[in-house]
Amino acid sequence: MAATFASKCSRVGRSLWGGLGNNLSGLLSASHETACNHFLSQQQRTFIQMRTVLKVVDNSGAKKVMCIQALKGKKGARLGDTIIASVKEAYPNGKVKKGKVVYGVVVRAAMQRGRCDGSEVKFDDNAVVLVDKQGQPIGTRVFGPVPHELRQKKHVKILSLAGHIA
Amino acid sequence: MALSTSRTLLRSFASLSPFARCSNSTSYGDSLWSSEPRAIFKALLQEWKLGFPSLSRALYCSTADFKKNELLELQEVEKVLSDVRADNVKVIPVQKHCAWADFMVIATGRSTWHVKNIAQALIYKVKQKQKGAQRLMLPSVEGQEGGKWIVIDSGKVVVHALDEKARDYYSLESLWTTGTSEKEPIQDLEKALVKIRRKNNSKKQAKKSA
User: Fold this and answer.
1) What stretch of H or E contains A87?
2) Using alpha carbons only, what angle is made at residue A62 by residues A57 and A68, rounded to the nearest 5 degrees?
3) Which of A95, A118, A131, B101 is the most exposed place for a label (fewest CB within 10 A)?
4) Contact B175 A9 (CB under 8 A)
5) Considering only CB atoms, which chain B residues are within 8 Å of A19?
6) Which of residues 36-75 of B touch A (CB under 8 A)?
7) Which H/E stretch holds residue B104?
8) For residue B173, what pLDDT is reported?
9) Contact in structure between A63 and A28 (CB atoms under 8 Å)
10) Beta A62-70 vs A53-56: how paired, if at all?
11) pTM of the model
């Protein structure tokens, strides 16, 4: 399990052991921890809005999409919301081509989302799964972790195609 | 040394994934020291089963005494599917690798109308079960407008009604029977990057170096 995580991490450009090592060293030195976790020194993450580039985590053929509209919410889309996006980068032989306007469901967001038990969940990147207008996923598999919030938002199809559920 | 490795493992469980971070993950981590991590993690995930109406019921069902108050039971689902004459009904127990559902039922419909009918029949069964109750708790249905793939989520049992084409396209059984990690796309990538020597089918005589 750690090996698959490490391979996924290396793709993003971060090493799993590096991250865990940071956690451990943070545990040991309290002053370092408080300096790192000080709220003013951390980046404030916001919504997914127009011009946000997101990663595509299914095998529909697209690699990167740019959000052009968040369907619900005045400020932008959050975890579990649907967006309209334009494909900016795609694999050569895939179901979607570059320049196509698609719908997508946000499955990972850097902005934290509160859960009903009071905890918050946030991810390291912004990721989206492409769907059609009726909500059917275009790809057949979803990679990486997906949160439980999709069940509340009636995206059980994406949950059932996903391998790992956070 | 063993304690530190187990601590790193528990920390990775407590943070839910290498990418996800919980704000109060340290509090979960403290509770994880004492007992077996996997069971506690599964219990936490069960608590976070959001979305379907009988959330509180499912919590009590899983932890406290066993109340037969689920929206849809497995036997009822099978009976309804056989009544509606759905093809190729498959029941997959996913308790081991899915924390949010216990059984996945996949059924095929012969046409979009048939798929919609399967969903309607299941909802009718739930309504019948709750006849006379003050409030009707219905399972969540997705994909009702287009009749290609309808998912009925009733807590422990998730029913997928697809048509033939969608079933071949998504191939859900291969996803759940082989386990959580999907190895296929990585293998294709490896094959794509391998350099293959071109086949030499020319009839020209090879030059012999003297």
Assistant:
1) strand A82-90
2) 90
3) A118
4) no
5) 18
6) 45, 47-52
7) strand B103-109
8) 85
9) no
10) antiparallel
11) 0.63
